[in-house]
Amino acid sequence: MPSEDLRKHAEDVLSLLGNDLKTPVNADDIKGQLERFLEYGVPLNQAKQTLLKKYGASASVSTQALEITKLTDLQPNLRSVKIIAQVVSINPKDITVKGEPRQIFSGILRDETGSVSFTSWHDIQVERGDVVEIGNAYTNEWQDAVQLNIGNKTQIEKRDKDALPKETFEPTKCSINKIHTGMGALDIEVCILELQKKDVEVNGESKTMFHGVFGDETGKIPFTAWHDFKLKEKETISLIGGYVKSWRGIPQISFDKDAKVKKVKKDGVSIDKIPERKLRMFEVEEQSGLYDVSVEGRVIEVQQGSGFILRCPECKRMLLEGECQIHGSVDGVADLRVRCVIDDGSGSVSAIFNREISEMVLGKTMDECKEMEPSALMDLMKDILFAKVFSLKGNTMRDRFGTRFIPHDVEKVEVDVKKDAEELISILSNGGI
Ligand SMILES: [Zn+2]
User: Fold this and answer.
1) Ligand 1 mean position to 322 CA, how many Å?
2) CA–centroid distance, residue 328 to ligand 1 (Å)
3) Per-residue pLDDT reduced to its tens digit, 206-245
4) CA of 400 to the centre of ligand 1 (A)
5) Do 302 and 382 touch, CB atoms closer than 8 A?
6) Are residues 160 and 209 both part of a single domain?
7) Does 342 lie in the same domain as 311?
8) What residue numbers bound the domain in which 192 lies?
9) Do the beta carbons of residue 282 and residue 210 sit within 8 Å?
10) Which of 17, 81, 177, 250 could cross-link with 289 by S-S, CB 3.0 to 4.6 Å?
């Protein structure tokens, strides 16, 4: 996109923010961030929406002005939502509400900007493939993703296919590093790195699903297939169709019998040929969730809640004075964790080390940590971690508290202090950074 157009969009964002700014920001900053989003294949509308959210505008500012909301612009907790979309899937589901059996309908809708899961509390008499205009629906958040709800006051009207632009029906050709939650149908070529078969129960019926990990030259992503495509590990396939869903905050590809899967004749990409996806913190912060990426940065804070803790055996929440906020007084399960903020100059994430990684980094077992005074343990953690550089590999997710990094692998990076200082001096003597 030409620079002056981007500038216009940046000014647009600023004017929508109005006096609602959480932190001061100027048009150049906004423009720079929009540029990066676009580089990563994030649709413009979604990029603008994300920045509006980041700098403080309430979701209503940007969505109420539009008569028809594009799916990519949907935010949780909106009322009176109007959309035009195609029904990608719809399935009845038997549930029990207050002891009464009820049938609800759930599925996926898409438009040219993305897709959204929906739930209807009654039979809306539409079929897969129908284009519908839905008025007076509402949204909420379900498993870290926006969900559209169709209630008694929601109006549904069938429309012609040309009510949506024709790119709605065309899959997006892309690589794994460009995939983000809420994307419409995909067109990708990937290697199957891991594959597992699993029998699950869906609505009282037993179903076989296949899940695993896809890879290409740009990264990895988990997938779930609801149909037996005779997938085999190490094979390269072309997949057309399928959707990107968020599962526990991390994007994954989900596809069923409607997807087109073709084996591609190619030497399989082996797991060790998939490059490590090394990202700067700002890139991590811009995505709602990432699978198997690596970052490097300096610990700038060891957070409260780090150390030896007890967890609820039912829900794994941390106990406060022996009580779970949901399950009350329970026998806690011992655990050790470290929560710290890691910064690389471009941004920061809050990393949560599990017991195994905490023990490795601290050089102490959980039982040894349990014996220590909490304040002495905190001091030890600060000594070992604070201002040190670490490289982390793992998954990220973003929630209302910010971006969290859950590493499966942590390594301390030995920094050459002298070389660091020399570099800094040479930058400074060349007239500033
Ligand atoms: Zn609990």
Assistant:
1) 11
2) 7
3) 888 999 999 998 889 999 998 999 999 989 999 998 888 8
4) 21
5) yes
6) no
7) yes
8) 171-273
9) no
10) 250
